[in-house]
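Title: Comparing notes on inverse folding

I've been comparing how different people in this forum approach sequence design from structure. To keep things fair, I'm posting one structure and asking everyone to reply with a full sequence. Here's the target:
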């Protein structure tokens, strides 16, 4: 395996050659990854092109000789130096992420397009050669199957090993969730996803799913506790996690100038004074006065120009008019 450090080229630049020494295709300095664990010296992910070049997040270009998915998984866990350390002592290390371009996917035996069968999510069928090859070699996708985002794992002597695979031509990075990412070149995509992994977490689907995974990684749902009866360590729920006992979110700390609610016709702000409902004009019998009343910085009575029953107002709104505007003598004045 050969490792090359240097800046990643842009879309119009010639693809860098994988050789020893710094690259000179661009004057931009490489984005040096923050290395906290020597096991993951090449960052959390790589983007693989059809020529066997795996672009890392820090400007690193690795030589990936894999020609099958099984060989790619073996290379990712044994030689790539990809991954990320755990964020909590009760958590797990983050699996390396391999992003496959269209040409790389075809070279590894995957179809360029993944068709949807009925209402079921897009997944490779169980009789596909890639799925059968993985089963024979001891690698297993999760119960979701092999789709645009796939986690493949196996049980090894040192514990469970896993690799995440994102297939670009299968719309792994939806333009609605990852604007601009699907059209990037491999080097630019690796750099962008590397920044996201450094500031949030290694991508593993939509940003919403990444947020849930981040909260789980920061506070895993399971922790070890000692059984007082036997003295052995057993698994128990972790209070405050997204497991069986999640904590309620803290209340918003809204300032006096921050609205509590914004409706179509008013904005509600917090006020230390009495509620507007407490100063509405009421008759001697305790019923509200049949007159308009303005709520706002200067609440007060509004001179009524007409009153109509609620069904009349609903009919007017269905016609696209605002019944609260220019009412005079019971008839609406349209714009």
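Reply #1:
Here's my take.
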């Amino acid at each position: 395996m050969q490792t090359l450090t240097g800046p990643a080229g842009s879309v119009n630049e010639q693809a860098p050659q994988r050789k020893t020494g710094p690259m000179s295709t661009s004057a931009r300095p490489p984005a040096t990854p923050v290395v906290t664990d020597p096991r993951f010296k090449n960052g959390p992910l790589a983007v693989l092109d059809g020529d066997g070049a795996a672009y890392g997040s820090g400007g690193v270009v690795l030589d990936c000789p894999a020609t099958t998915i099984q060989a790619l998984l073996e290379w990712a866990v044994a030689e790539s130096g990809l991954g990320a350390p755990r964020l909590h002592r009760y958590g797990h290390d983050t699996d390396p992420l391999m992003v496959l371009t269209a040409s790389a996917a075809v070279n590894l035996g995957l179809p360029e397009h993944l068709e949807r069968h009925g209402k079921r999510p897009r997944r490779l069928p169980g009789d596909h050669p890639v799925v059968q090859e993985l089963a024979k070699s001891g690698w297993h996708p999760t119960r979701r199957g092999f789709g645009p985002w796939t986690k493949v794992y196996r049980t090894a002597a040192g514990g469970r090993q896993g690799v995440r695979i994102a297939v670009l031509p299968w719309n792994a990075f939806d333009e609605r969730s990852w604007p601009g990412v699907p059209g990037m070149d491999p080097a630019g995509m690796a750099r962008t996803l590397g920044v996201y992994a450094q500031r949030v977490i290694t991508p593993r689907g939509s940003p919403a799913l990444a947020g849930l995974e981040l909260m789980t990684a920061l506070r895993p749902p399971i922790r070890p506790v000692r059984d007082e009866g036997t003295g052995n360590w057993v698994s128990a729920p972790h209070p405050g996690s997204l497991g069986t006992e999640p904590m309620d979110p803290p209340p918003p700390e809204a300032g006096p100038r921050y609205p509590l609610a914004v409706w179509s016709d008013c904005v509600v702000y917090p006020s230390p004074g009495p509620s507007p409902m407490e100063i509405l004009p009421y008759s001697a019998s305790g019923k509200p006065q049949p007159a308009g009343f303005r709520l706002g910085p200067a609440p007060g009575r509004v001179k009524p120009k007409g009153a109509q029953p609620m069904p009349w107002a609903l009919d007017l709104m269905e016609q696209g008019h605002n019944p609260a505007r220019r009412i005079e003598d019971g008839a609406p004045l349209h714009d």
